[in-house]
Structure formats: structure tokens, C-alpha cells
Fold:
Amino acid sequence: MIGSARRAELFGHPRGLAFLFATEMWERFSYYGMRALLVLYMVDHLLAPERAQSVIGLGALKQGLEFLLGPLAPQPFASQIYGLYTGFVYLTPILGGWLADRWLGRRYTVILGAALMMAGHFMMASEGLFLLALVTLALGNGAFKPNIVTQVGGLYAPNDPRRDRAFSIFYVGINVGGFFAPLVSGTLGETLGWHYGFVSAGVGMAIGLATYLAGLPSLPVETAPTRIVDERAELRSDGRALLGLLLLAPPAILFWAAYEQQGNTIALWAERFTDRHVDLLFWRGEIPVTWFQAVNPLMIFLFTPPLVALWARLAAAGREPSTIVKLSLGCFCLGLSYLILAFAAETRGEGLSSWLWLAAYFALLTLGELCFSPITLSLVSRLAPPRSRSMAMGAWFLTMFAGNFLGGWLGGFWSSLSAAGFFALIAGAAVAAGAMIELARRCRADLIPD
Structure:
């Protein structure tokens, strides 16, 4: 299976990696392009009474949420929808992993997911289909996400030293798409109209699907999925490591709840409380709100090479932090990023805060992400039972589901707390995640995979 995929190589890696890189890049372009517009679209346009009544199912959803949470003004309601959507984006991968491992195989499940997401983005152009479009997008992502990630590992033998570098290359692909998405879809949505931004996201997903289909001959050949397998021996051998991953799940949930505010309340902070005027020698103007969503992916490009080089130098000196220490460092960096915004909010007075505070926020958030997100993907890919790797990856995405759901709930406090108080609350969640990881590392080192 691996040998056939490795006959043709490009820059020292299987050619299939380039196709998976490009496919994921376009999929992330579509996801982040739509996400950059989502909260602004709801708060500034869709949830106006004269438009909200035309959205299929929106009234019933609001009644259900208000039954649980009490009355919801437009901003908290939008935050709840955002949290539900981004949460279900990471709940559905366990279904996609099961579908691939037991029925369709990874290739056909990725194709199904890409087609559903393409349809969902185009449906976003119709106000009445808004909720149905979000459901379609979440289902498509569930089929797509765990199976394309596991195909990266399938290009390499288990002990191939290029495997870790391959995941780093793939992670850059995610952020190439994430960088250009707000610049393209966000600009179209803010200048020409919301629906132009959503359609551009659909076009990006269509290009991603075409790229994947073109690359199928370069991907690992799959054996027929096995519907009934006995994995008890595998589970016994990996049981302690999997228990360690379960121990890491609660802090991961808190991490993602804080991290995902960048597409929710941070967009509102940038729109309403940030001085976005820039006066440079070669350009003068106002930074569009959605462009701030491109800062994090840009910093991924800038920070990844020196950070990898730093880890290599520390490893050569025998001082590289352990995997689990990196995870806690990521949480603490994330917490510090929100403390910076809390300070900016507390000291701004009645005026607007400089956009440079947001730049500092994104710098620390990016460092936290680089210490946390790829590390957890690597752990799951390495420790999951081979016959159920897609489903195990999907199960880990449940932490992102819970984190996004929690993040949406926390985002509802934006309207009732001061900005400084809100950012301090989110910082506390991130710092608590780091403290939980450190406590687990010290108290149950036998269960934490390192």
C-alpha cells in the first residue's frame, strides 16, 4: 500500500502529499472564508427581524435556545449559532471516520465530504437556506476532515523519519488557505455583498475537490473496509496511551473554547473597538475587519521555521521540552494573548484601541497554537489503533466540538461583561487548561504519552 504511493516523489516526499496539501489548502480557504463573514453577517444583516423570519428553522432554534438560556439578543444569539456550527464541525468527524473505516473507505468519504461542503457554501448565498447550509457544511466536514489527515500518515511507513515533517508541511497548507480566505472571501463579502463572499468559498471548495480527484493515482491504495474487526488486542496494547489522551481531553476543550473566540468576539472587537486606520509610507487606509482573520495564518508561515529550528537546537543540546510541556506552554501563551487584550480594553478609555494590540494578540495566539494543535494531531496519529485510525482521529475532534460549543456559550457573555472582564474570563480558561495539563503530567506521568 505504501510502496505504490512512494514510487513517485516530489522534493523528497511522496507526490501524493502535494495533492493532499493542495486539497486541504482549498478546503481551509472555503472554511475560513465563510467563517470570517459568519458572525458579522448574522449580527449586521441576517438577524434583523425583517430577514430572520425568512430563514427556515431559525425561529424554532431561537425558541429552543431561549428555553435553555433565557432571552437572547442578536449578538448572543449569533454567538450561540457560531458555537453550535463550529462545534458540530468537530463532532461529525467521528461519524466520517466510522463511515470510512467500516463502509466507504477514506477516498470515497473524502469525495463525499468535499461535495457536501461545496453544496453548503453555495446554499449560504440563499438567506432562507442559512441553517440548512450550516448543517450541510458540518456533515461534509465530518466526512472530509479525519480521512484526509489519516491519508497523510498512510503515505509513509510507521518509522519513516519524514512523517513528522510531512505533517508540518500539511499544517502549512491549512494556513495558506486560511491566510488568503479572509482577504478574498472577506473582502468580497464586505464590499460587494455577503453572498459574493459565500459563493467564493464554494468555488474554492470546488477547486479542492477537483485537485483531490486529480491526485487519486498518487494516494495510498486502500484495502476493502472491514465492517467487523476485533481490536481488543490493539486496544490492550495502546490502552494506557489512549487513557492518557482522555486525560488531556478536558484541557483541550478549554484551549479550543478560548482559541475559537478569534472568529467570534474578536471580530466584534476589531469592528467596534479597534482603530483600524493605518498610515504607512506606501499605503494609507482602514484595515477591513475580516482581514484580521488572515493574521493568524500569516504568522503560522512566519513562526513555524524559526520555532522548528529552535526545537532542533534544543534537542541537539538535550534541552527540548517534552511533548506535554509544549502543550502546556501553548495554553499559557494563549492565556497571555487574552490578557494583552484585557489590558488594551482596560486602558483605552472612551476611545478606540490601536490595531497593534490585536497584532500582539495574534502573535501569542499563534505561538500557542503551534505548541498545541500539531502536537495533539501527531499524538493521535501515532497512538490510534491502525484499523480504526480515522475513527480515532474523529473521536479526538470531539474535544474541538466541545470546545467550540463552550466557546459559543462563553461568547454570549460579550454583551453583558465589559470587554476587559470578558477577555480576562477567556484568559482564565486558557491558563486553567495549561494548569490541568501540568497537574496531569506531574500526578499521572504513567498515563500521559510523551
